[in-house]
Amino acid sequence: xxxxxxxxxxxxxxxxxxxxxxxxxxxxxxxxxxxxxxxxxxxxxxxxxxxxxxxxxxxxxxxxxxxxxxxxxxxxxxxxxxxxxxxxxxxxxxxxxxxxxxxxxxxxxxxxxxxxxxxxxxxxxxxxxxxxxxxxxxxxxxxxxxxxxxxxxxxxxxxxxxxxxxxxxxxxxxxxxxxxxxxxxxxxxxxxxxxxxxxxxxxxxxxxxxxxxxxxxxxxxxxxxxxxxxxxxxxxxxxxxxxxxxxxxxxxxxxx
Length: 256
Prior knowledge:
Blueprint: H1 15-31, H2 43-48, H3 53-58, H4 61-65, H5 74-77, E1 84-88, H6 94-103, E2 108-113, H7 116-129, E3 134-138, E4 151-157, H8 166-176, E5 177-190, H9 202-206, H10 215-224, E6 228-236, E7 246-254
Parallel strand pairs: 1-2, 1-4, 2-3, 4-5
Antiparallel strand pairs: 5-7, 6-7
């Protein structure tokens, strides 16, 4: 896959080109986690956004070393024992493995990512963790191909701000959640609109400001796409929020 230049102007890129560039950049993390990617990666970053040491010690080291999320949704997931859960944009699988441990042997977790290389790393991590109730699928977050009403819980960690079609992802979540099902996610949002210092290049996109929106705009989008009771569970700055206007938030909502 050709490498897309980070200084390429966003204005010259179609939504499809941006999506391909995201897949390319995050796929490179799976093969070279210590390389330069334009965003933080690894255990130290996971610690900085709040993942507890005991959890990071439990998870296989390669999984932790490829962590690239926006924050720490774990205190708010509360996956019920026996639940069917989907983790979108699972990367190397840290959150998917954590949820698999929570739902237990009577539950099941699917991790979904658009990178073949990341899926391979996640599968290796599940085997190393000895978890037989989690599987991984390579697919788009906006076209998962799961049946309607497949899951009790959907989680993700920082994918909306990188997507040029946020509505498609949220509607797919609504479609695949069972009535009464819940979505819990971490996401980069803006405290206020960025104007004069707005994003102009692909590297800005990977700084998680190019596609980020304000808290109010995100909650409104969630409602418009069919999620109910959308709320902010946490909002703070962390190691991913380099721009002064950016915050890491944890959000939840349900499906009627």
